[in-house]
Q: What sequence folds into this?
């Protein structure tokens, strides 16, 4: 009964808005992946759409395969296109056609070698990479044969850790984790006895809140460092720089979206989140243990002044 | 239909198992033995069998396991397609029937009882009995009536809603019998119906069966590997070995005059006096004095008279009303199991 | 046959057997000798024998891609599959509406959780008494109280569609295979491939042809869960007693009536066992299908793991296991449930007591939940989930010093002294050494046919171009199976002597199979790092289960008279075990080993989650894109290795069975 009344109420509220929009009544399918900020952001945007009287549905997908789905129109959009992690898949899908760039967020992204704060106690020269190399042996494991061990992201993230170690002549072996979870397990295992570790990590990310830490400072990224050996300190090697410290965070949209859901598409191009906002969304779920839907509620309630103009300018 | 037409007639029936039996049979030299056929890669399930069953007659097919008796009865009902020869039911060659006609024949004329009962485990007693009626599309009410009648006939009233697994072996076979009778068949096939039962129950079921047969008067083909059972029930017995029929005759004749060595082996252990009837030993037309004994009396039941009566011949009243004479010495020889 | 010919035949047989044994030994020694020779002479032999040269490897992936693209676009298969996925989507949506109120046809309100829980308890009571009622009701109460209701219903909405399809299609194919020998002969190899194809190879085509999300997930689940249904249908229909068949024919059944009224009802038990298998396999896939958009528990589990919430992921794992155990028990109870008769004159309400009870429960709880919101929906804040506490406990337990010391030692010992050296050794071996060795093993176990298969299939693996990765996969599976034997066999032998322990062991095996191993991956990584031993541990459970189960069943299946005869002959316990029980149980145990291999190959995917350099890792990579061709060359590398072992072990088991007259 309470549900029934809620439904009536929702319909009553929704109807007038629908009348103003020419958007299709088909649900807008929004993909969600397996990290919190993206899930919450998707729900925030989804709830904005629902306020506009649109139908929204969420589908869990692989974060690389999703570009193929956007291209085919199986899902309508993608809210977090990370330059480092997904730039490759995104560009590939872009060249095949069917999806397009729907603008950048304000947020910048960074992905690189990273260590939790306690590591600095054992290797005080950090975050400099040469200092890291000098204390390589404290990162040694039973299997690394005396060299330091760097735990890189999954191979399919194409992080080129091995190439960098070679290019910079570092005393490290590179092991690829199979998943993000495996990275966390490694940090979590090191935590109780403050064992020094250096792993692949990125920002914005919930891990920053759980384990404070820093990125290792490698030679600064220059454009072409991954295609022109001359760039970077080693004249004969690629990948002899750190990753860009301010990578983009884009939105992507299916080519059919502007026609099918014009006002939703308009909102998508307008909206933009910042690093602190994204971190806050993640925190609701990762630290406060809210469900993504509830987290989106809370975030929206606290940030009406930010989202209302986006909706207002499009309806 | 002519009343003289046999209900079942088999004419040189062959059933071979193997890769291409028809082709083999057509080029096979005549008179090839079972072993020779086997060395050619074929098994002769039924080997050149010819016999007839008259209306209302009970033919018992007797043989050891693997002798082909089950195969033969399946040729009569065309559960097996025969390789050569012809099987006629009421004069109709059943190999010429198409699938629909065959189903119609089974739905209207044939009933069969199986050694391990062949009951459908998911159906109740009543539903099992009604199964053939349901298959031929009889309406629910009519088939229920008929099935209840059958259940009563075999003495299972009160257990209509039981499932087969809740019944004893004997009771399960009663269900099998009731099912086979549900469509009121003219021809009743029973494939070792009592072999799976223990001896006491078997005896009881045989009595029950004889009672039913008295009442219903069906044409029956009954299969058994038990010679005593065959003698007890049969009008005529067909003894089979290696797919072929060794001898078809009345029990008396088989006991008194086994056609082959193989048949003789079976008769050796039998108490002939309890099988042979007076009429068989009687010769026609010789007038003899004294009170005639009934023709259907066994020699054993006449033992006292045979021993006490001093005359050479004893009068016997024959089934056709005439009186015959039985040689007392011959009868005594049967009584004491002496060989002629 | 007369006695003398019989004796003659046996003597002949014995002579043939000893001649055969000598020939086997010569062939096997030659093959192994050549294999070893190649390895020893590695520096001097032509490099083409060490590794197939790049030029000799054909572009299989490109060809496959071209083939797929032809199927997909030129033939227009994708339109067909997308239409099908439209229907499937409609069905999963409808199920989702009924279960959790997704806004789709028939647009009902979500069922209150208490209604579902109470009605499953009634169903459990009807099928198996109060214990089953408690299990069924308890599972759903737990799910609701843990705040996982919505996810569980999302999962079930897909399973509720996938299972009937898996059952129906499996039944249909089973009936066709039973009717037509030729169809069965064509179907068997397909089933074998389906059962050994790693799950990653199901995922990509499912996504491409059936659209990411619940539809692709249900298609992958249907395809994966179907084979046992087909096999059980064939077995069941074949087993219908000839008497019953003939009784049906003599009752004048048409062909359709035979099937409908005689064959299918008589094969009921096997068909229901098949259904049980379909359900279990569908549940086993809950987490893996999350990779291609299956919503619900699996997706949540992965999300929890990616934000390092051990406790919450553990709770979800428990729910998955509980659901699996409940559905397993319910369906098994249904298998053994026989119809019961009522005495005449039983009133109708007594005949349908359970149905009425079910309806009453439904109505009661539906009304109650309208007034007591907690019976309708348990909010996140009301739930009893104790994620962070469990996190603390797990982390605390992993931090205990002796635990750390022990695991450090295990890690060091296995990695440094066992796994890394054997891995390097396998990688060192020339390709042709491995091919010859596999041929030899095939010959040793089963004769010419398995030998030929071993040769051809391993040559095919080399030809597919992923040799080194294939060897790493082979290494992981071999080690996992060996370790499973090392630990599992003693356990099984111990249990097999005790009826109770055996029952528990089999129960544990059933449960372990449904346990999503993802849950213990994180603790395993924390203890053993991202190293080979963790990979082995991840698949060990899947190899232990069949080894333990079949060893227990094999040993317990030894006829009593035979063990009693051994006792009377004065055999000690060990003598009895080694000389009597083991030889007789060996064919069964071999089947278990075979399954262990197949599971291990299938589960290489899980190891990729930890981080490996084998085929699984490359396959995980293909998931991100649309490289169907590459995905399948990798998948078939696994299939070829798994099948050649499967064929060899099975033909050995069959031969043993024949010798033992089983």
A:
């Amino acid at each position: 009964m309470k549900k029934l009344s809620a439904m009536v109420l929702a319909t009553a509220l929704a109807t007038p808005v629908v009348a103003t929009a020419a958007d299709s009544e088909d649900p807008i399918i929004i993909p969600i992946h397996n990290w919190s900020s993206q899930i919450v952001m998707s729900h925030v945007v989804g709830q904005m759409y629902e306020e506009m009287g649109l139908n929204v549905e969420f589908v869990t997908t692989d974060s690389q395969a999703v570009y193929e789905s956007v291209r085919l129109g199986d899902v309508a959009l993608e809210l977090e296109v990370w330059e480092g992690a997904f730039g490759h898949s995104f560009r590939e899908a872009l060249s095949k056609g069917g999806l397009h760039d729907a603008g950048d967020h304000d947020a910048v992204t960074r992905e690189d070698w990273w260590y939790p704060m306690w590591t600095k106690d054992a290797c005080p020269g950090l975050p400099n990479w040469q200092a890291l190399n000098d204390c390589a042996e404290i990162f040694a494991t039973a299997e690394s044969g005396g060299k330091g061990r760097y735990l890189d992201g999954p191979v399919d993230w194409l992080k080129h850790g091995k190439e960098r170690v070679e290019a910079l002549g570092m005393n490290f072996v590179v092991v690829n984790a199979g998943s993000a979870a495996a990275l966390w397990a490694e940090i979590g295992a090191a935590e109780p006895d403050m064992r020094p570790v250096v792993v692949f990590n990125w920002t914005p990310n919930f891990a920053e809140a759980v384990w404070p830490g820093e990125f290792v400072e490698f030679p600064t990224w220059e454009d072409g460092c991954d295609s022109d050996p001359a760039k970077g300190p080693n004249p004969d090697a690629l990948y002899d720089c750190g990753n860009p410290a301010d990578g983009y965070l884009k939105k992507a949209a299916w080519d059919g979206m502007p026609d099918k859901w014009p006002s939703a598409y308009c909102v998508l191009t307008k909206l933009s989140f910042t690093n602190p906002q994204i971190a806050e969304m993640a925190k609701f779920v990762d630290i406060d243990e809210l469900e993504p839907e509830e987290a989106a509620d809370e975030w929206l309630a606290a940030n009406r002044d930010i989202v209302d103009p986006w909706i207002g300018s499009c309806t | 239909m002519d009343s003289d037409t046999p209900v079942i007639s088999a004419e040189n029936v062959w059933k071979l198992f193997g890769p291409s039996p028809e082709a083999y049979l057509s080029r096979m030299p005549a008179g090839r033995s079972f072993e020779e056929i086997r060395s050619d890669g074929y098994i002769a399930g039924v080997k050149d069998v010819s016999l007839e069953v008259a209306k209302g007659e009970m033919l018992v097919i007797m043989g050891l396991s693997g002798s082909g008796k089950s195969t033969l009865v399946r040729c009569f009902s065309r559960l097996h397609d025969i390789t050569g020869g012809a099987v006629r039911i009421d004069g109709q060659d059943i190999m010429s029937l198409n699938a629909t006609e065959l189903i119609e024949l089974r739905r209207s004329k044939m009933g069969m009882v199986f050694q391990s009962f062949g009951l459908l485990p998911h159906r109740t007693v009543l539903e099992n009995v009604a199964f053939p009626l349901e298959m031929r599309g009889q309406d629910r009410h009519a088939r229920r009536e008929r099935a209840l009648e059958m259940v009563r006939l075999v003495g299972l009233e009160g257990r209509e809603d039981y499932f087969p697994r809740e019944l004893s072996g004997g009771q399960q076979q009663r269900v099998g019998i009731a099912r086979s009778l549900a469509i009121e068949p003219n021809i009743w096939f029973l494939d070792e119906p009592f072999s799976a039962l223990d001896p006491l129950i078997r005896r009881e079921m045989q009595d029950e069966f004889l009672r039913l047969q008295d009442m219903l008067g069906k044409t029956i083909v009954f299969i058994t590997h038990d010679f005593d059972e065959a003698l007890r029930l049969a009008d005529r017995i067909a003894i089979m070995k290696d797919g072929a029929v060794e001898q078809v005759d009345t029990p008396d004749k088989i006991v008194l005059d086994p056609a082959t060595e193989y048949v003789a082996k079976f008769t050796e252990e039998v108490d002939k006096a309890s099988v042979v009837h007076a009429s068989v030993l009687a010769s026609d037309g010789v007038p003899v004095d004294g009170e005639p004994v009934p023709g259907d009396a066994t020699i054993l039941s006449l033992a006292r008279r045979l021993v006490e009566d001093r005359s050479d011949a004893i009068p016997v009243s024959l089934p056709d009303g005439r009186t015959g004479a039985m040689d007392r010495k011959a009868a005594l020889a049967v009584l004491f199991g002496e060989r002629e | 046959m007369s006695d003398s010919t019989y004796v003659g035949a046996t003597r002949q047989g014995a002579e043939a057997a000893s001649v055969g044994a000598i020939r086997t030994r010569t062939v096997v020694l030659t093959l192994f000798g050549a294999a070893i020779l190649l390895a020893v002479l590695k520096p001097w032999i032509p490099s083409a024998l060490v590794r197939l040269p790049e030029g000799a490897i054909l572009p299989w992936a490109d060809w496959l891609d071209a083939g797929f693209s032809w199927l997909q676009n030129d033939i227009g298969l994708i339109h067909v599959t997308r239409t099908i996925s439209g229907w499937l989507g409609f069905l999963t949506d409808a199920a989702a509406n009924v279960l959790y109120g997704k806004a789709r046809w028939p647009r009902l309100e979500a069922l209150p959780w208490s209604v579902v829980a109470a009605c499953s308890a009634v169903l459990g009571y009807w099928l198996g008494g109060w214990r089953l009622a408690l299990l069924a009701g308890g599972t759903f109460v737990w799910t609701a109280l843990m705040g996982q209701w919505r996810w569980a219903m999302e999962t079930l909405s897909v399973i509720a569609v996938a299972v009937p399809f898996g059952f129906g299609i499996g039944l249909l194919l089973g009936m066709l295979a039973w009717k037509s020998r030729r169809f069965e002969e064509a179907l068997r190899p397909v089933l074998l491939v389906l059962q050994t194809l790693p799950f990653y190879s199901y995922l990509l085509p499912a996504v491409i042809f059936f659209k990411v999300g619940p539809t692709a997930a249900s298609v992958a689940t249907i395809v994966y869960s179907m084979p046992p249904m087909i096999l059980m249908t064939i077995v069941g229909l074949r087993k219908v007693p000839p008497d019953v068949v003939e009784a049906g024919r003599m009752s004048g059944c048409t062909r359709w009536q035979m099937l409908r009224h005689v064959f299918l009802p008589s094969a009921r038990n096997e068909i229901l066992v098949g259904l049980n298998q379909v359900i279990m396999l569908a549940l086993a896939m809950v987490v893996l299908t999350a990779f291609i958009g299956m919503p619900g528990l699996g997706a949540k589990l992965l999300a929890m793991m990616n934000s390092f919430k051990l406790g919450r992921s553990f709770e979800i794992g428990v729910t998955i296991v509980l659901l699996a155990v409940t559905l397993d028990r319910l369906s098994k109870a249904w298998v053994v449930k026989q119809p019961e008769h009522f005495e005449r004159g039983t009133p109708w309400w007594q005949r349908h007591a359970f149905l009425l009870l079910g309806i009453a429960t439904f109505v009661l709880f539906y009304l109650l939940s309208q007034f007591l919101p907690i019976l309708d929906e348990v909010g996140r804040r009301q739930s009893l989930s104790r994620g962070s506490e469990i996190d603390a406990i797990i982390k605390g337990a992993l931090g205990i010093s002796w635990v750390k010391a022990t695991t450090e030692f295990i890690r060091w010992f296995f990695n440094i002294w066992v796994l890394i050296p054997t891995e390097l050794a396998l990688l060192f071996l020339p390709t042709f050494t491995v091919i010859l060795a596999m041929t030899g093993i095939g010959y040793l176990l089963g004769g010419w046919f398995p030998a030929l298969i071993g040769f051809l299939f391993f040559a095919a693996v080399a030809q597919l171009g992923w040799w080194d990765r294939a060897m790493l996969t082979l290494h992981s599976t071999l080690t996992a199976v060996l370790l499973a034997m090392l630990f599992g066999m003693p356990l099984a032998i111990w249990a097999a002597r005790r009826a109770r322990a055996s029952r528990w062991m089999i129960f544990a095996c059933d449960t372990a199979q449904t346990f999503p191993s993802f849950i213990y991956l994180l603790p395993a990584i924390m203890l053993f790092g991202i190293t080979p031993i963790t990979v082995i541990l991840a698949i060990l459970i899947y190899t232990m289960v069949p080894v333990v189960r079949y060893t227990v069943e094999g040993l317990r299946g030894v006829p009593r008279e035979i063990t009693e005869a051994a006792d009377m002959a004065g055999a000690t316990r060990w003598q009895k075990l080694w000389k009597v029980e083991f030889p007789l149980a060996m064919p069964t145990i071999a089947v278990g080993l075979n399954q262990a291999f197949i599971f291990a190959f299938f589960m290489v995917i899980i190891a990729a989650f930890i981080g490996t350099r084998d085929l699984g890792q490359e396959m995980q990579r293909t998931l991100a894109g649309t490289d169907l061709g590459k995905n399948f060359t990798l998948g078939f590398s696994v299939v070829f290795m798994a099948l050649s072992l499967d064929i060899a072990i099975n033909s050995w088991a069959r031969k043993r069975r024949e010798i033992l007259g089983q």
About this structure: Residues 174 and 199 of chain B are 16 Å apart (CA to CA).
